[in-house]
Amino acid sequence: MKKIEDKYKVLNHIDHILLRPQTYLGSNKPHTSLKWILVGGQMKREEITYVPSFLKVFDEIITNSVDESKRNPLLNKIEVNLDMKSGIISVKDSGGIPVVIHKDHNKYVPEVIFGNLMSGSNYDDTEDRIGAGTNGYGAKLTNVFSKQFSISTCDGKNLFTQTFTNNMREIGEPKIKRNKINHTEISYLPDYEKFGLDGLDESHYLLIHKRVIDVAGCNPNIRVFFNGEEIKIKSFEDYVKYYKSEYFLETNKEKTWSIAVAHSEDGFSQVSFVNTTDTYDGGTHIDYILNQILSQMREFFQKKHKVDVKPSELKNHMMIFLNATVVNPSFSSQTKEKLITEVKDFGFTYEVPEKLIKSILKSEIVNSILDWINQKKKADESKLARDLNKNLDKIKVEKLIDAKGKDRWKCSLNIFEGDSAASSFRKYRDPQTMGAFSLKGKFINVSEITTKKLIENHEAMNLMGAIGLKLGQDVDIKNLRYGRILLLTDADTDGNSISALLLNFFNKYWPTLFDRNMIFKVETPIVVSINKKTKKKLLFYTQTEYNNWSQKEDLKNWEIKYKKGLAALVDDEYQEIIHNPKLTKITKDELSDEYLDIWFGKNSELRKNQILK
User: Whole-model pTM?
Assistant: First the structure.
């Protein structure tokens, strides 16, 4: 049983920070994720293991320098040095802190700033701040997590130096000297054990280097050095070039907002900053810009391409770079990875220029979205086809007079134009080898149809089920229910049109049916001549055939009957076309894709030209 004194404790502020670092600095555990680092002069996303809180203590120091540059025009230079051997990290700028006694605390101002938790210059909420500091922890957290933390600063008159040790618990005496060179330098030896590290490793070196480049990119008015080498960045555009060679960039006149947009091949990504703070989780500033861009892009796709693309789908093809200035920013946590300030409180407005929107709409971004739309359409249709194919074998086919034979390859399916035309078929068919399917009027035109629309057409589904055809699958002889498909339509314009629509259907989805010589047109008589004396009957299938015969005969001896369609045939005539059909095999040569496109495609001009020939 724990004592009351062991169960309930009161910690001093330093001990609380060290015990619960995640409250102040973010996670103190190793994370492995994709992070941007400089590789061969270019930013690349690579999997890297790092401790977020360790990076944050460095960020607190360099952010102090950036914030001070907005108040002090002398601060135009920042130098960062990492000593891999000793593990010491230093940040030096050309500013300077007043080396005077703070009357309220009776201590020098630098000691108040860096050696007292909750101290700072950001507590006047009536003042518009465009820095990143807000809560008064900042560099003191770095001090708390350091074995040694040294300050050197000069205000142009006096040089102040002081060293803290043992996680800010032990405070050295400040030393004051006369000096005229303005600067502030923070040099600290992190307490690596508190981060689970043995020392300064390559991963953290690379990530700190990247952060220094961020600072240079967001503040082109500051000369930034890393381990003695200047980072050559003169504008935010120079920074974007580390990531992309092709992009569209705009900066407002006040130079408070800079935005760049580039094509992304692996989903949406963003690199954004608020007052130089790396908002790697984005926030309201990213939403503010994206909403303007995506609303116009969505309208563009609706008008020009007749497709409604969701904003989330549009942005997946984009990479956004944003360097924003926000007054008195609010973040989701002390680690400041996400901006939560409402747009109305930004202190600035930014309207995405029309020039930038036009550039995006003419770019590879749009082509990429169109490719994705087509791929998604195919994927959706493939899924619909798979779902349909699972059910096709189970559907009860309407209007099917099925053949009964087991050897299905020897069976033929006769496709009739209408129910009445198929009524006499039952009388004369061979039930073992002959089946029939009756169409209801005109068949569907599949030239420009989607899979979804095709599936909604019951007649097409029934015909597929009758034959054993599967969408998206080549003809499988083992699964086919019929070895031949015979088309029996009226010998007139409507009948020919129905035949052509059926051929168009088979050609689009199962062209190998023609290669396998499985589709035939059954010719039907248009004229029947009956000898009045002998009752001999002659069937003519074309007007030319009839004309040639009639010129040689005395028509007084014959009864001439013109047949308007299948329904006009009498029983023996039906028996003739069923048991002794005059067949025309439909081949790919005869079945011209070009002609099918003319008659059934979208372009009506092609049909007009064909008719006028």
Answer: 0.71
